[in-house]
Amino acid sequence: MPAASTILMIRPAAFGYNDETAANNFFQHHPDISREAVQQKALAEFDAMVALLRRNEVEVLVLEDSKEPPKPDAVFPNNWISTSPDGRIMLYPLYAANRRTEKREEIVQQLARDFVVTDVQDWTEFEVEGRFLEGTGSMVIDHDHEMIYAAISERTNLSVLEKFSSANKFQAIVFLATDRNGQPVYHTNVVMTLGEKFAVLCEEAIEEEWELIAVKQLLESTGHAIIPITREQMHCFAGNMLELKNRKDEPLLVLSQSAFESLRADQLQELENYVKLLPVAVPTIEQVEGGSVRCMMAEIFLKRK
C-alpha cells in the first residue's frame, strides 16, 4: 500500500448537519449550536489540521468550497474523487442527492493541469439507478497488491464494486461490518485503516467468522501486521486514519484526537513502531457529520508535470 505525499482537502463553505446522510450514518449527532457556529468551529478545525500537516512537510492542496449551492459535506472529498499511482482519476456515485454537487469539474481540470492524468473514470451514472460506491470511504484500496477491502452497505453497492474492481483489475474482498447497535457501518474506512506495513481493524464489527478469517488472512499474506480495535474505539474513529509520507519520505499517521485518546498504550506503541503519530482535534466535524480525518483527505498519487 503506497503512502501518498500529496493530499487534496476542500475548505468548507457551509459545513453542517446533513439530514440526508444521517439516514444511514449513525455516527452523526445533531448539534445544539447554530449553523453559523458549527461552520466556524469546523473551519478552525480544518485550518488547524492543514497547518499540522504542512508543519510536518506534507504537501496539502487546499481548494475552497464554492458557496452555492451549500454543501454540508464538502470537507469529505475522498467520497467522490480518488487517484491511482498509474495516473487515473476516478469519480464516484454518492448516496445523498444533496452531496452530488460536491463533484466540481474545475477541480478535476486543475488536477489535470498540474499532474499527469492518463484517464478519468466516471462512475456517477449509477446514481440514477440508486446504486452507490463512495470512493475511498467505501473502498480501502491496496494498490500494491491490487486488492479492495469493502464493507457492503447502502453506500457500497456490490454490483458497482464488482464492475469497478473488474475494470481496474482489482480483487474485491467483501464483508459486512456492524456498529455497536447492530447497524451496518456506512463506510469501510471507519472499520479499518491500511498502512504500508500494518492494518488497524475492528475485528468485532465483522461478525461472520469466515469473513473475518478471510480478511485477516489476506492482510497477513500481504505483509500487514494487524492491530485490532474494539467497536467502542471504532466509534471514536480509531479506524479512520491515514498513513502519509512527507517530503523527507518519513511515514506519518494522521488520526483524530478522539481516536488517539481511545487507543490503549500498547496499541499506540505498536503503531509507533511503523509511523509517527499526528493526532489532530476535529470534534465538530466528527460529531456533526460523522466522519473524521481520513475522510477529509483525498490522496493524490499522480505525478506532477
Short description:
By secondary structure, this protein is of the alpha/beta class. It has a single domain, classed as 5-stranded Propeller (L-arginine/glycine Amidinotransferase, Chain A), CATH 3.75.10.
- Broad structural category: alpha/beta
Percent of residues in helices? 25-40%
Q: Going across the major beta sheet, what is the strand order? A: 2-1-15
Q: Superfamily at the CATH H level?
A: L-arginine/glycine Amidinotransferase, Chain A
Tell me, what's the shape? globular
Query: In the CATH hierarchy, what is the class?
Result: Alpha Beta
Number of strands: 15
Q: What percentage of amino acids are in beta strands?
A: 15-25%
CATH topology annotation: L-arginine/glycine Amidinotransferase, Chain A
Which consecutive residue ranges, at least 5 long each, have pLDDT under 50? none
Secondary-structure element order, N to C: EHEEEHEHEEHEHEEHEHEEHHEHE
Plain-language structure description:
The structure is a single chain. The chain is an alpha/beta fold. The protein has one domain: 5-stranded Propeller (L-arginine/glycine Amidinotransferase, Chain A). The protein is built from 10 helices and 15 strands. The chain has a 3-stranded mixed sheet with strand order 2-1-15, with helices on one face. The protein has a 3-stranded mixed sheet with strand order 3-4-5, with no helix packed on it. Strands 6-7-8 form a 3-stranded mixed sheet, with helices on both faces. A hairpin with a 3-residue loop joins β9 and β10. The protein starts with 5 loop residues before the first strand and ends in a 6-residue tail after the last strand.
